[in-house]
Design goal:
heterodimer, A: 425 residues, alpha/beta, Spore Coat Polysaccharide Biosynthesis Protein SpsA, Chain A, 2 domains, nine-stranded mixed beta sheet, 11 strands, 13% strand, disordered C terminus, B: 237 residues, mainly alpha, 9 helices, 86% helix
Chain lengths: 425, 237
């Protein structure tokens, strides 16, 4: 066990008393005293319903909570001692807790994969106590494909509001699908399932010190699984409700998602450059769901932020984008708000230019990614304008068109990626 | 009479011959030193250029924005700039050593003073160079933060950061050279104080509404719920 040295003696002692397990569920937490009790109850109910004979453990990795999250985790008891058929678990359900001084997603995730490796877990799930409608059914849906059907990575699928998770819908999904060739919609999620085999492989990678892996370890694991040809699947969970505290602001989200994606593109370059087209993966439940809810958003304000951002960052964008892409964006930014259209082809070219510039380091990488934020707002504005009165089917059709555009323009990315950028005068 | 004149001329001629005989070897030594200096400077320039190419300094300089500044000032790339600087500093040093060999007391004194100043000038140049790098990097960071947060006039924030760091770097460089130390410190204090006062007055008088809004934001948002909701952007994740 090469990575056990970062685990504390106390944690190792707890693992030794647990022994080997079949199933592991991890809960990274930070000040989740209000919700972690519910999370533990649902996990235990899932064990009673679906895995009464398996050896199971729940691990809470707490990052400096001040509200007694870990204590509540240890004390929380299932309000139902037996399942609907009157059955209880036949095995002891272990609970392990470890605490770090600060909340670090990377450290929490590394602890969980190290635990999976040490305890020889066959299937693992990670869930967030920030998801307020997490249910026992979800746990089963994440664990079953890995435990019973030999899938190594189980991505969740949610019912989304029409404007919810746009960074995933218009950027992460189409781009990873075109680049890595697998159609997995939710690569950024706080809920996921994976096998012990994938956990051991990830643990052996010397990447845990990287900032991108520290910030979004789940996305890195998902892309690693796809790039390494591990069997992957999707499992539909239902609508996802997040506590307001877990909402991520746009700048942080773009920095994390784009930073991780570009970094993974560099790491797995030999894999993706060869791949063409995309393949669907087995999906349990509906492939996509969009609810008809229409949140109140200020479209004019978003366009204004795009317009002013493009004007202010014009010299920076000039060093990142190809001249024709830059010209097209400048043109969109000067249009009337009601007519401005950041079309799919331009959006694809913009992202591919950013990826190539990131690879060639034409600018400090963090600054490069931050300068993408106004352009993302431009695309969001166009999306809102286009789908003001679209049905769920029309939105899905447009998403598919965007994905195909990313796949069609992939040779452009490969060409720009391979050509060493010249210092522009 | 004629004898005296001839004797005087002979003495003058003797002195001239003596002086030339005394000066010529020193001139030859000086020229030799300068030529050796030229060769050494040329070799050092090429060595430094190769090392900097290996360390990919141009790429780092491009990232930090220093190359952009050099291009604006019609100067060569960072590697070329530093290599040429080393060439000229080495060559100049050899020229000064060569001149000192001539043995002219006034020149020697000036050259000695110049030699004392050289390290300080070099440190001052380094300070200015680092200052430009830091100013570019931080001003770009400030500009990006302001743009993405939707502040008004984001370029003002970037410009202000750049200006402050330049002022700081220039005053540090001048102080390093020892030029009007007191004046520089006083000037910096006055400029800095004036900027802070201007900001305070602008914020207090001109920006009363902005101050009120900022305080409200910190002490609790008093806007109606509908307005707050309307400002939201769609959740990215």
């Amino acid at each position: 066990m090469p990575e056990e040295s970062f685990l504390t003696d106390d944690l190792l002692r707890q693992f030794m008393s647990v022994g080997e397990v079949d199933i592991l569920v991890g809960i990274p937490s930070h000040n989740h005293a209000e919700t972690i009790g519910h999370t533990v109850e649902e996990i235990e109910e899932s064990f009673q319903h679906e895995f009464p004979r398996e050896r199971v453990v729940i691990i809470n990795v707490d990052g400096g909570s001040q509200d007694g999250t870990s204590e509540i985790f240890l004390k929380a008891s299932s309000h139902k001692n037996s399942n609907s058929r009157g059955l209880t678990s036949l095995r002891t359900e272990h609970r392990v807790v470890t605490r770090y001084d600060t909340a670090s997603p990377g450290m929490a995730f590394k602890t969980l994969v190290a635990a999976a490796d040490l305890l020889r877990a066959k299937a693992c799930a990670v869930v967030s106590p920030g998801t307020s409608n997490l249910s026992a059914e979800w746990i089963g849906k994440l664990l079953r494909p890995a435990y019973l059907q030999n899938f190594d990575f189980v991505a969740p699928l949610y019912t989304r509001q029409r404007y919810d998770g746009l960074l995933v819908r218009i950027l992460l999904y189409p781009m990873t699908r075109a680049i890595f060739g697998r159609r997995i919609r939710e690569l950024h999620s706080t809920e996921l399932g994976f096998s012990g085999r994938l956990a051991s492989m990830c643990l052996s990678q010397d990447v845990w010190h990287e900032r991108t892996v520290q910030e979004l370890p789940e996305t890195w694991m998902a892309i690693t699984a796809i790039a390494s040809d591990f069997p992957c699947c999707q499992s539909y969970l239902g609508p996802k409700l997040r506590s307001p505290a877990s909402r991520t602001d746009i700048v942080t989200a773009v920095r994390q998602v784009l930073g991780t994606l570009f970094w993974c593109m560099e790491s797995y370059q030999p894999v993706w450059v060869q791949r063409t087209g995309s393949e669907s993966v087995p999906t349990f439940g509906p492939d996509h769901e969009i609810s008809e809810e229409r949140p109140n958003v200020n479209r004019e304000r978003i366009f204004e932020l795009f317009r002013s951002g493009v004007a202010e960052l014009s010299p920076i964008l000039k060093t990142i984008l190809a001249p024709d892409t830059n010209e097209a964006i400048q043109r969109v930014a000067t249009m009337d708000e009601r007519n401005a259209c950041f079309d799919n082809a331009l959006w694809t070219r913009t992202l591919y230019d950013f990826a190539a510039s990131y690879h060639h380091t034409t600018l400090n990488r963090d600054h490069l990614i931050q300068s993408f934020v106004p352009l993302y707002r431009g695309k969001v504005h166009s999306y809102l304008l286009q789908h003001e009165s679209s049905s769920a089917g029309e939105i899905e059709a447009d998403s598919e068109n965007l994905c195909l555009e990313f796949e069609r323009q992939k040779p452009y990315l490969v060409q720009r990626w391979k050509v060493q950028s010249e210092v522009k005068p | 009479m004629n004898d005296t004149i001839l004797q005087g001329l002979a003495q003058a001629y003797g002195n001239l011959v003596h002086m030339v005989a005394d000066f010529l070897p020193r001139l030859v030594v000086m020229v030799t030193i300068i030529l050796v200096g030229l060769l050494v400077a040329f070799i050092l320039k090429n060595i430094l250029r190769s090392i900097l190419h290996l360390t990919k300094l141009d790429r780092i300089s491009e990232e930090a924005g220093a190359s952009h500044v050099l291009r604006k000032a019609a100067m060569p790339s960072m590697t070329e700039f530093l290599s040429r600087s080393l060439f000229w500093m080495t060559f100049l040093g050899f020229i000064l050593i060569g001149i000192s060999v001539l043995g002219i007391p006034e020149l020697q004194e000036q050259i000695a003073r110049l030699f004392e100043l050289l390290p300080q000038i070099f440190v001052a140049i380094v300070i200015l160079f680092v200052g430009v790098l830091v100013a570019n990097f931080l001003s770009r960071a400030a500009l990006l933060t302001a743009v993405n947060a939707g502040y008004r006039s984001p370029s003002v924030w970037g410009g202000l950061v750049r200006f402050m760091i330049w002022i700081l770097a220039i005053s540090m460089a001048l102080e390093q050279v020892g030029l009007a130390r007191q004046t520089v410190v006083t000037a910096f204090s006055i400029v800095f104080g004036a900027i802070m006062l201007a900001v305070a007055i602008a914020f207090g008088l001109g920006g009363r509404d902005l101050a009120r809004q900022t305080l409200e934001r910190y002490l609790g948002d008093k806007r109606p719920e509908s307005e707050h909701e309307k400002e939201q952007e769609p959740s990215p994740l």
